[in-house]
Write a structure and sequence with these properties.
disordered N terminus, single chain, 5 helices, globular, disordered C terminus, mainly alpha, 170 residues
Length: 170
């Protein structure tokens, strides 16, 4: 049992008993530390994306789109990329695996790691019920959207270069 001191209507302090479920508190603390960890990792992923040359950014966009689709087929999606022996944990290891790959010197491995991390973190934060999860999910969605816009913008530019413009003469 926990004794809580509160301020009453007229500014007087009152003491009341509050029941706190210990597991609920532990779960919230774990969720908050998970959100902090994913936020730090997201900054590293963003840095990895922005240091890539433009052609590789387009490849990351298509890899991320594919990884998001593959993760959506898993049950639950945030366990995508997690080895079977680690599937007993509440959160999978897909983000850790993706981040390790994103740190690679090999560009192909780095791109796949970025896509894996974004896909798993997107699905994990989408259903997470913890303070800060919505903000983190919006940040992840922004990065994914920017990648997809880059993919479509570059495809439109390529299309405009291949299609000859007709000039109407009046």
């Amino acid at each position: 049992m926990l004794i809580v001191q509160t301020t009453g209507r007229w500014g007087a302090f009152h003491r009341r008993e509050a029941t706190v479920k210990p597991l609920h508190v532990v779960h919230r603390i774990l969720a908050m530390t998970r959100i902090l960890k994913l936020g730090r990792q997201l900054r590293e992923i963003e840095q990895a994306i922005y240091t890539l040359p433009t052609p590789l950014e387009r490849k990351v966009a298509s890899i991320t789109t594919r990884e998001l689709e593959l993760a959506a087929r898993c049950d639950p999606p945030w366990m995508y990329g997690t080895p079977p022996e680690d599937e007993t944990a509440e959160w999978g290891t897909g983000t850790d695996i993706g981040l390790a790959r994103a740190r690679s010197d090999n560009p192909q491995v780095r791109m796949r790691g970025i896509g894996l991390w974004l896909a798993v973190a997107y699905h994990e934060t989408r259903v997470m019920q913890a303070p800060g999860a919505d903000d983190l999910h919006r940040r992840i969605m922004r990065v994914v959207r920017q990648l997809k816009e880059r993919l479509h913008t570059d495809a439109d530019d390529a299309l405009s270069r291949t299609v000859p413009h007709s000039h109407a003469v009046a």
